[in-house]
Amino acid sequence: MPCYANLALIYDLLVSGVDYEGWIDYLEEILRRFNYRPCTVLDLACGTGNTTLPLARRGYHVTGLDLSPSMITVASKKAIEQKLKVNFITADMRSFELKKPVDLVICFHDGLNYLADYKDMEKTFRQVRKNLVDGGMFVFDLNTIQWLAGSTPDVTVIDEPEYTLIWRSRYYPANISWEIELTAFIRKGEYYHKFTEQHREYGYTADQVRQALKTAELKYLASYDAFSFNPVQPHSRRHFYVAQRS
Q1: Rounded Cα gap, residues 60 and 241, in angstroms
Q2: I need a labelling partner for 138 at 20 to 30 A (CA). Which of 34, 159, 177, 225 fits?
Q3: Global pTM?
């Protein structure tokens, strides 16, 4: 899996319109539905900490984990600036080990869509189970195959005084994946730093997700259309899943 070292420089610009507090509001609504009150939380694929830090502000004891050292560096700096106590770890979600199991594991904002193989999903779910307390919960989202497939080839340009971003997107039906090639020019004094990175998300069916949970001995509890408690719909962009170590 790529580490996206350069993306960390501009990631917060790309997601500046995302309501991360709203994501955590929704998470807490899910937990209330199951009458579950966790204290310790692991945020898988935490990136620059945009879901980790709101949890810390609300009093949870949070660990953020990401494969990218650059993302973790940015997240740690933000935590220090906001005077929040968060433990950040650079590790692979397919093989991580915590010192102590946690009450809740989350993986948000397409993190699991970056797994390129179904076996990798099984590996990740097994690690989640190993690092959960008995009765601990696992809440995560996935972009749907239908949404990925509906992403027609496109070119987008954002041109600002401090940066220019150009990304090209394309869907590959052969392996059910959606690729974005990002080219960025970031102002550094009188010059611009250029880099290009490729990002690819993979689609998985609801049946595959439930089977991977079963294989990992995690109990499937529910799935919802994103940010609601409606049953999942094939045409939706994102589904949320809830599972438990029973």
Answers
A1: 21
A2: 177
A3: 0.94
- Taking alpha carbons only, the member of 223, 219, 217, 209 closest to residue 243 is 219
64/170 same-domain check = no
CA 225 to chain CA centroid, nearest Å:
17
Regions of the chain short of the pLDDT cut 70: 1-5
**What domain count does the chain have?**
2
Same domain, 132 and 64: yes
Q: Give the C-alpha separation, 138 to 161, whole Å.
A: 42
Give yes or no: residues 180 and 134 share one domain: no
Determine the residue type at 12: D
Identify the DSSP state of 222.
E
**What type of residue is 224?**
Y
Domain hosting 87: range is 7-144+204-244
| pLDDT tens-digit series, residues 131-183 | 999 999 999 999 999 999 987 778 989 898 888 989 899 999 999 999 999 99
